[in-house]
Amino acid sequence: MYGSLLLADPGGVLLWAGITAFVAGLMRGFAGFGSAILMAPIFAVLLGPVHMVPMVAAIELPMSVMLFLGSQKDVEWKFVAPLSAIAMAAMPVGLWLLVSLDAAAITRAVSVIVLLFVAVLITGWRYQGPRPLALTLGIGGISGAMMATTSVGGPPVLLYMLAAAMPAATIRANIVAYYLLTGFILVTMVMLASPTALAAVIDAMVLLPVILASSWIGSRLAGKAADQTYRWIAYIFLAAAGIIGLVG
Length: 248
What we know:
Structural class: mainly alpha
Order of helices and strands: HHHHHHHHHH
Number of strands: 0
Distance between the termini: 28 Å
């Protein structure tokens, strides 16, 4: 039986993981995105990528459930269903890479993905081309494999969805539904495949009250200043997390 890595080192790893979760929750609350992307590179350094992937997925899952309950009526299932299905189908490939690749290489890959995502967000680039089913399936497959290997599978799907010609409420609901479906399947797959996954889920539960509380605080702060101000704060935090992952 593998125990909690956080509770085994309350003065070190737990402290830094708790601070990271608190900041991630604040950012999720006031900017609406980025909690998993912030946590992934730092948790990979603190705990290793094999522990980090199911832990981040398990932390995010309850928040996805809560968000889905309030947005399910707006989901465009014809768009979300094939995207989610192919992502789930690609997850075993990602899990194989997770246990096969060098941990340091995965941590660096997570950090590079985060930094590239921040750069794209800052420039404001959006995909404006057609969205045939083949492209949707390709984006979903890449995202699913990335999610299982690094827990950061969101950037390709987020950029693809944000540029869709759909109402804002539908785009938001689609993102929430996608993360709920894929997150649930990822946690289930890892629980069945990894003997250390239970410890990761326990650690997720340890941090869950922190991130839920800070996300509520962040939501209360939203609207106190310009939306662009909060987004730039989020970009700074994300870039810092990516740099920390790179330098270790």
